[in-house]
Amino acid sequence: MKITLNPDEEIVKLIREGLEKKGGYCPCRREIIPENKCMCKEFRDQIADPAYEGFCHCMLYYKSLED
């Protein structure tokens, strides 16, 4: 398993700006709750799933199954 940033630098820049504005909470989520703090609970759960491969909700991170 490997976690990488989205290869699209513009998306990474926009999401990081949103994270900064929201104090580290996912800019794609309305609620400011612990589950939405980056790396959000949804993506941590996806990381724990050995069969999951793909992007987190906001498209900042990508989990690949290969090292």
Structural notes for this entry:
The protein is α+β, with helices and mostly antiparallel strands and 67 residues long. The chain has one domain. It is built from two helices and three strands. A hairpin with a 5-residue loop joins strand 2 and strand 3. The protein is flat, with a radius of gyration of 12 Å. The model has no long low-confidence stretch (mean pLDDT 96).
What is the averaged pLDDT score? 96
The run of helices and strands is EHHEE
Oligomer: single chain
Total domains: 1
- The secondary structure category is alpha+beta
Biggest β-sheet description: 3 strands, antiparallel
- What topology, given as strand order, has the largest sheet? 1-3-2
How many DSSP H or I helices?
A: 2
Strand content: 5-15%
The end-to-end distance, rounded to whole angstroms, is 5 Å
Q: Which term fits the overall shape?
A: flat
Instruction: Show unreliable segments.
Output: none
Measured as a percent range, the helix fraction is 25-40%
Radius of gyration: 12 Å
Strand segment tally = 3
The gist of it:
This protein is α+β, with helices and mostly antiparallel strands. Helices cover 31% and strands 15% of the residues.
